[in-house]
Amino acid sequence: MSGKRCMGCMNEQKAQYTVCPYCGLKAETAPDPSQIRPGTVLAQRYEVGFALKIGLYTITYIAYDLQREEKVIVKEYYPSQLCSRVDGGNRIGIRAGGEQKTFYERGLTQFLKEAKDLHSVSVPFFIPVQDVFTENATAYMVMPYLNGKTLEAAIEEKKRFSITETLALMMPVMDITDRLHQKGILHLNIHPGNIFLVDSGEVILMDSGRYNRSFVDAPMETIGENSRYQAPEIRNLHEKIDGSVDVYSICAIMYEMITGTEIEDGASRITKDTVKSPLSRRVKITANQDAILMNGLALHSKNRINSVEKLMKSFVSIRPVQKVEEPAAVQKKKAPERRKTEGARHTRKAESSSGSGGILRIVLPCVLVLCIAVGGFIAFGHFKGKNTANMTQKKKVTSDTEKTTSVPNVSNQTYERAKKAAQDAGFELEITDAVEAPEDEGEDIVREQDPAAGIAAKTGSTITVTVTAHNTTLTDVLKTNMEIRNYALSDENKKKLKETFTVYDDNKEESNLIPGYLLGIYSGSQDDQTTKSLDMNSEILKHSKITLAYSAGRKDITEGQDTGISVKNLLKKDIQGALEEAKIKGFYVGISQTADYKTKDIAPLGDAYMIKKLNDDGKEVKMGYDDKIQTGDKILLCLSRGPKRIKINGKYLTEDTYSGVEYESAKKALEKAGVTVTSTEKYNSSVSAGKVISTSCRCRYEENEIEESQQGGIHEGDSVDVTVSAGPEPTTQASEPTQPSSGGGSSSSRSSSSGKSKSSSSKSNPKSSSDKVTDNDALEN
């Protein structure tokens, strides 16, 4: 153990544990001597644990990325027959003797080249190489850690698979390999241990093995446990290879899966081929599938299916496939010869049995022909209808059979690619459900399909699929936050919903909502055990199932009777209040698409300011204040959208709009916009008298009484206080009078009999803030 992290599974655990509670690794467990010491940190980033697999050329480790704090896989170049660890450490030393160093370095160069190529390539569901580096005289590639198991482990558990199960697992492998081929990369190392079945359902193809060819002529054992999946020519450096080598590997894996028998090594088959076709082993597959597999396993590349793309198309095509071992020309030549011999044999037998009896040779055939003719004539009328029906039925069955084909595997492909593959095979593709996509993964990847791949289905039928998706809301889909329940759902909104979700309709629920109007939206289909009501902001996966529940009306309403109420009883009611009234009185209500901004004096937000009647022809007719309502009437509420935020000259009114403007003109404009105006005068030396210094608004609405789009600013019905300039504040200076001097050459100060005189100035008092400005008011100057 290293610290608190288990070197077997890289999960954190308590330091005192001697056995990992996650993977069961014991603290005293010793690693294989050929592997890096557990706990070693490579590239100052990857803490390496125990080896997951030790192969002929590489060792694969579980590791922990200390920078990204996640598990990873580290693959080390380690051709064990050419090298070993130096002094029990991590560094690699090449074994002495022969050309060991040459082969080691050639393989190392190819390993690095392949790692860098894969690091730069991006193919869906092919495990990416995240990092490449050299250390310890060798090279390493880093790949993401996946939860699941290899196909090798699955085969060991199940032993044998049906052709349908096999195609479901291997068609994604074909698709990934084909994508690699399109980028000029041959895999060369496809085997069950390199195919990973992720717990979430994806099929992943692991790293390739082009570097393996570097050791074909090396002085070492190159026949490993996976060699039986390799085409014979892959071990010949002088033979040119192409995409057919990967075709061979895929078909070899499929052969083992459906037969439950290990296939013979390709090189051994060159000497003596004992591989029998699946059909001869009584495996339940079609003749076409049998021929495709055996053609993919052809020993000579010129006879083999030469590309994975052709292999995929062969499995979904309805065209008959001939095995390369027995061309169609040979069959056609043999059949007529066999029929001719058989005819001659019967002729000779007839001649020998008849002898030379001339009369019998003439009479017996005539009697026989006559009996057949009479019997046929009698029987024809009796069986004519039955035989004709049987022939017609037989012809129909044959016709239907000719129109069936094998369902292609579209799993783990993007929807667009899957759709094209389905259409190429003669099928339609339809999304019927969704699963949540991981945050780092795109949408519309096919995860499930029905029917499964390989099943024979009618050409032109539909394959339904489940795809990955992210969450959305009804607000995002419909581009509005306006509630759609209790309305007649528009065709445009229906289209948007059906383009985004798998939509089911439910018209069974009785209600006083107008029949056909939308009662609610629910997750799932009406057959699902668990559903939940959705509002406009509920998160729901794209492409998932939703149910639109519509009102079915009521069966117990008798039309045309007086309800005892009129239109005025429904004004200023919301939809719930109107529905309660309708339930008691026996009429229907719904919400009209007509809506307008109204002050709360007329109708608060969400309440009816006007009532309409929905006629049988679908037209909405406005009703008068005192109009009577009868049972069965379809009444529409025109709902208030609350107060409207005021715009003047195309711009929203704010507290700064009229700063510096003549008060009288500002007052007139504000009152025209529906605002109550009050004013206060204030001395101000920078703003001319009679002009607006500032305004402040008193909103008469609570936040929940204003539609979200109209919140902020100034609304109809609000009050605005205007501060008006009274000009500069007037000032008065008091001067003390000078007293005249007395005679006799001396002067003395003398107070006047009245003492000092004080002067006072009067100034106008500004109006109080409670005074309301009218059109006749004038500002004091």
TrEMBL record:
Annotated Low complexity bias: 747-768
Q: Which residues fall in a compositionally biased region of kind Basic and acidic residues?
A: 338-351
Residue ranges of region Disordered?
Answer: 326-355, 391-411, 705-781
PASTA domain segment(s) = 401-469
**CDD domains assigned to the protein according to its UniProt record, in alphabetical order:** PASTA_pknB
Keywords on this record? ATP-binding, Kinase, Membrane, Nucleotide-binding, Transferase, Transmembrane, Transmembrane helix
User: Domain Protein kinase spans what residues?
Assistant: 46-316
Q: Give the GO cellular component terms, alphabetically.
A: autophagosome; cytosol; membrane; phagophore assembly site
Q: What is this protein called?
A: PASTA domain-containing protein
